[in-house]
Design a protein that fits this description.
With 706 residues, this protein is of the alpha+beta class. 42% of the residues lie in helices and 17% in strands. The protein has an 8-stranded antiparallel beta sheet. The chain has a 5-stranded antiparallel beta sheet with strand order 10-11-15-16-18, with helices on one face. Strand 1 (157-160) and strand 2 form a beta hairpin. Helix 2 (35-60) runs parallel beside helix 6 and helix 15 packs parallel to helix 17. The longest helix has 26 residues, at 35-60. The protein is globular and about 85 Å long. Residues 1-8 have low confidence and may be disordered.
Length: 706
């Protein structure tokens, strides 16, 4: 792909853009393609023209009223809103119904890439807009030529009722899309790395720091879909006193600082921090920016990925809104199946290496991510559609390999033992009428007494450090029966098996955790309901043998196989098996009481839910890529259970040591029976009995459970 730079580049790109817009405008008046495809191409042309008008207005500095911003936002996103989605070409099922296979899937994918022009227009990324528009024209021309030369292409003749239609070869369309992704990979992947590391890209930061946040028009300047939810949360934060906003931001930024302190890493060597959050929290984020700057850290903001090649199975990483339609995101989570092959995978990895080398200094300056999550969204039950793309077994293997290599490259330039992170969560208005009460209670939960929890958690650790295994059983209606094997401690005076986790990288306070020994860790994990990502899993079951997952299921769908596929995609990350990377006991009974009081237990994010009972992570340990860096508890003892039988393979073959995922699953107190420490001589001591803490010194943890 030819690259352009400077003023001459801008002139060339603008000429290309103008020519593409002129050609696309003509599509709406033509009848040059097969009749059944006319509607698709005309709607694509109308959409591109709409985005072009937005780009023109933004570049000219046109000022909109709040009502005009709302209208424009609706126009841009209305086609994929739930009420319109059944008849949208963004819906693969509808696209296939209208256009047939495989054209429906292919052209639905093209539409998603065209929709990526919305944020590009707001950021002024004209070359990327031009590239996808030229791809639309290229594919349109394939259909034009097929119709014009139809008599010479009888193999592509399609009978449509009384009509005879002529279509391009299926591979022609796929190849055009493939080469669009591949040819522009150098630009799109390099851009993604830069925006994750370069603080000089200030699009979002300027909106946050320079806007009048009391004027909600600022929300629309991001170019994301803005629902009532974003407006309500922004208005609510505007109603809070400055000291409350300060408390929220201070808890968040201080947690990040403490992460470096606890892990004995030098924050003074770092100069940037990545802020990831959901739109609506700008007032808190502005204060957080000020806090980070006082630490010597310049914040970086990047949008969730726009280009398909940079996305990760529907996960949103970066700043974003709640989005117009979760089913739309779900339908396109495996669009990479259209183009992913070995050649493209190798090319992407090559670009990643080059990009990280280009931004080597910026990578070394980065302290890590500070994340604000939200919870309380309406329950989402995905619909599986046969028309959606799915990865082949070969592509799943390729994707895992790419993820692993990406992590390895990232670690080379941003070593895990030199960075940290923090995560905090707040509710959104969708949680219900008690939103404001729940929000204030969440602030309280996020600021519980650090010292009190540190002391109570240490009493639990003192018992657990005498054990060789822990047995976890479910209460009434929960079938959990698990034995977790613990590492042998050579010197209990100086070593510990469990980290005493208070409010630093994971806010709120409240857990002790370890990396289990895999051999001897076996049994069944069962949770009746648990949220993981965007999905509420019903009757999730996972069986372990010697620490490895051997079976899994959920009851989200009538067909058990569909449930298995959902578990494999969301929890197993398409691996056939994963190790138990973590066993933890959550101690935040205050969070549990809040959840039960307001009936929101199933709506809490794993960040809070993991503190409300025992939890188990499948995938890598909590110390992945930094196992050789010492970690100490507040009492000075070294946490030695940082490895397991899989992670130690890094010393022989790095590719065998990591799965590059870590997914927590919590059993809430109300489903829990007992957690019992088993000592080497066979004697036992209960840590939790019938869902209540049973260790002297931790009795106060039971108060919220009464």
């Amino acid at each position: 792909m030819k690259q352009y730079h400077g003023e001459s580049a801008d002139a060339v790109v603008r000429e290309r853009y103008a020519l593409s817009m002129e050609r696309i405008s003509g599509i709406r008046e033509e009848e040059a393609v097969a009749a059944s495809f006319l509607d698709y191409f005309r709607k694509m042309a109308e959409f591109v023209e709409l985005v072009g008008k937005v780009f023109q207005d933004l570049e000219a500095g046109v000022e909109y009223s709040l009502e005009e911003w709302e209208k424009r936002n609706q126009e841009l996103y209305q086609d994929i809103l739930p009420e319109n989605y059944e008849k949208s070409y963004g819906n693969p099922a509808y696209a296939v119904e209208r256009l047939g296979e495989p054209y429906g899937q292919q052209l639905s994918f093209l539409y998603t890439q065209l929709r990526g022009e919305i944020p590009m227009a707001y950021e002024g990324r004209l070359e990327e807009m031009t590239a996808v528009q030229e791809t639309l024209i290229e594919i349109y021309n394939l259909f034009v030529m097929a119709k014009a030369d139809g008599e010479a292409l009888p193999q592509n003749q399609v009978e449509d009722g009384a009509r005879t239609e002529y279509l391009p070869g299926e591979d022609q369309v796929r190849e055009a899309l493939y080469w669009y992704v591949s040819d522009y990979c150098d630009k799109t992947v390099e851009r993604r790395i830069r925006e994750c590391l370069d603080p000089s890209l200030t699009f979002a930061k300027d909106i946050i720091m320079k806007s009048d946040l009391s004027d909600l028009r600022y929300l629309y300047r991001f170019g994301e879909y803005i629902s009532d939810g974003e407006k309500k949360i922004a208005a609510f934060l505007n109603s809070l006193p400055e000291e409350t906003i300060g408390l929220m931001a201070d808890t968040y930024t201080e947690g990040f600082r403490k992460g470096f302190e606890v892990m004995r890493r030098d924050l003074s060597r770092k100069h940037t921090v990545i802020i990831r959050y959901e739109l609506g929290f700008e007032r808190m984020i502005r204060k957080a920016v000020e806090n980070f700057r006082s630490m010597g850290l310049e914040p970086i903001f990047y949008r969730t990925a726009v280009h398909s090649i940079n996305t990760s199975s529907g996960r949103k990483v970066g700043y974003h809104s709640a989005g117009p339609n979760r089913q739309y995101d779900y339908d396109h989570r495996f669009d990479q199946a259209l183009y992913l092959d070995k050649a493209l995978a190798d090319r992407k990895i090559g670009v990643l290496k080059k990009a990280y080398e280009t931004y080597r200094k910026e990578a070394g300056d980065c302290a890590g991510p500070a994340v604000v999550e939200t919870f309380g969204q309406e329950e989402f039950q995905p619909v599986n559609k046969k028309e959606c793309f799915s990865l082949s077994e070969k592509q799943e293997k390729l994707q895992r390999s790419m993820t692993s290599e990406n992590a390895r490259i990232s670690q080379q330039y941003m070593p895990g033992d030199e960075t940290s992170f923090t995560i905090i969560a707040f509710p959104v208005p969708d949680i219900g009428e008690a939103f404001e009460e729940i929000f204030k209670e969440t602030i309280r939960i996020n600021t519980l007494d650090y010292e009190a929890y540190k002391s109570m958690q240490q009493t639990l650790i003192d018992v657990l450090d005498q054990a060789e295994s822990v047995v976890i059983t479910g209460g009434e209606g929960n079938e959990t029966s698990l034995t977790v094997r613990l590492h042998h401690l050579e010197n209990r005076e100086k070593e510990t098996n469990f980290e005493n986790c208070v409010a630093d990288v994971n806010i709120p306070v409240g857990e002790v955790f370890t990396s289990p020994v895999l051999k001897g860790t076996s049994g069944l994990l069962h949770v009746n309901r648990v949220y993981i990502g965007d999905f509420q899993f019903q009757h999730l079951k996972m069986k372990f043998e010697d620490g490895m997952v051997t079976e899994y299921s959920c009851e989200n769908f009538p067909d058990p196989e569909e449930g298995r596929r959902l578990v494999k995609q969301v929890i197993m990350k398409n691996h056939d098996t994963l190790p138990m990377g973590e066993f933890a006991i959550g101690t935040n009974t205050s969070a549990y009481r809040m959840a039960e009081t307001y009936g929101i237990t199933e709506k809490l994010p794993i960040l809070i839910a993991e503190k409300m009972g025992p939890h188990f992570a499948v995938g890598d340990t909590c110390y992945s890529w930094a196992e050789d860096s010492p970690v100490y508890n507040p009492n000075g003892k070294e946490m030695v259970a940082r490895d397991n039988e899989i992670s130690v393979l890094r010393r022989e073959d790095l590719s065998q040591a990591y799965f590059n995922c870590h997914t927590d699953i919590t059993i809430p107190y109300k489903e829990l029976g007992d957690i019992t420490a088993v000592f080497p001589d066979g004697t036992r001591q209960d840590i939790i009995k019938n869902g209540k803490f049973a260790v002297p010194g931790a009795e106060a943890l039971n108060e919220p459970l009464k």
